[in-house]
Amino acid sequence: MEMTQKQGTIQNHFFSDMSVMLGRSMRHIFRSLDTIITVTIMPIAMMLLFVYVFGGAIQTGTANYVNYLVPGILLIAIASGISYTAFRLFIDVQRGIIERFRSMPIAPSTLLWGHVLTSLVSNAISLVVIMLVALLMGFRSSAGILSWLAVVGILALFTLALTWVAVIAGLTAKSTDGAGAFSYPLIFLPFISSAFVPTRTMPPVVRAFAENQPVTAIVDSIRALLAGQPVSQDIWVALAWCVGILVVAYIFAMRAYKKRAS
Amino acid sequence: MQNIAIQVNDIQKSYKKLNVLKGVNFTVDQGSIFALLGSNGAGKTTLINILTTLLKQDGGTAMVNGFDVASQPAHVRQSFSLTGQAAAVDEMLTGRENLIMIARLRHVTQPRQVADDLLTRFGLTDAANRRVSTYSGGMRRRLDLAMSLVGTPPILFLDEPTTGLDPEGRIEVWNMVKELADGGRTVFLTTQYLDEAEQLADHIAILHEGKIIASGTLMELKKRFPPAQKEYVEKQPTLEEIFLAIIGKKEAL
Known about the structure:
Chain A is mainly alpha-helical. Chain A has eleven helices and no strands. In chain B, strands 6-7-8-3-9-10 form a six-stranded mixed β-sheet, with helices on both faces. A four-stranded antiparallel β-sheet of chain B has the order 2-1-4-5. In chain B, helix 3 packs across helix 4. Chain B is globular.
């Protein structure tokens, strides 16, 4: 009886502590709005470039290239957005604020979860702005509410998975530049996928890579959902990738966090 | 008989091949000010990190407030707060927000009230709504000390509390530490300044090359080591005294 009571209070504190941490890093975001703006503008610029400069020459087999492009642009936005999570966490480590929290009677993972939830919120803000610009550029969707919910779910899961990768980078980086640099390959991945052009025009080796990396499965699923088409088994491949990355990254992130105390 | 706040038995720690702590022993009485004196790299911060559960020792045991740091870290963490070199304040938040954040994390009943009281007590009311990144070194250290008083933990660890402060800031911190100990708290501080240990501590231990080479009250240490010598010299003011006198005059104007 006493045991369960004790666990109960610890649970309660976990959520209240985490909300304090979330509030803290959200304040950081709103006091450095330039980070959100950077994260939002880069994908928008890319979208403008691809639609109005390259788009005319790209044969996707669809009438509306903006519709084709949007899923990939969203993933690029997420990949660049999470690099700021790594950056903020690295600053916490470097300044020593993390040591203060770790020396206090609070659940050890609350600081990390605070950063992770902040990443979800700030990426959601960027994605909403990008979608609004896409609408202005002619994006249209016939998807129903369930399909939209599925899209939001996949994007949230993808953000969550990559954010935990960012946590590893933030905890183990040796410099500010290093903390952000891990995201460059992630930003680049959509280019070697079905995000901008169909994979069938690519040479065999590149095509094999493109079709078997996570971005293609995720992009194809989101595209089908937004177009109101039936999704193929792509969605299971996409979910498997996201959950797989999430689990592995979470384990390594927690290990990196605990390793600081050995 | 006095109760023991901190007991350290044969603590050892090495980083790869570097043997930092080679069997450290001492006890700290409840309600006293204990100074761990040592030069840079002597292992002071390593020891404080072990006592505050940030680091695990390789050998030996340490008890803080009756709890074992290795096997009961959660209980240990409820017994102390840590300030100084190892722990920082949040630069993006204001002074008040920093205090409220810590008050919430320590689950005190009225976080805002606690924050306001501490701001007043540490002379930070005017700066309360400014971001900490605009604070001077002395103000930051005051905020840092204020943060470690939230929730009134019985033991305070101060890791080099005056390093990097100007003479006025140092004296300010000294006065606060004395005040805290008068209130019944146990203060464990590390320092590389001899005069700081002399000014503050009831008990001094000297850490050198991973071992405590001397330990006792100031009087005991004085008796044991260099024999007292009588010298007749004209008492000249120190540069510090001159500096403080000039500054004091200016502020009086």
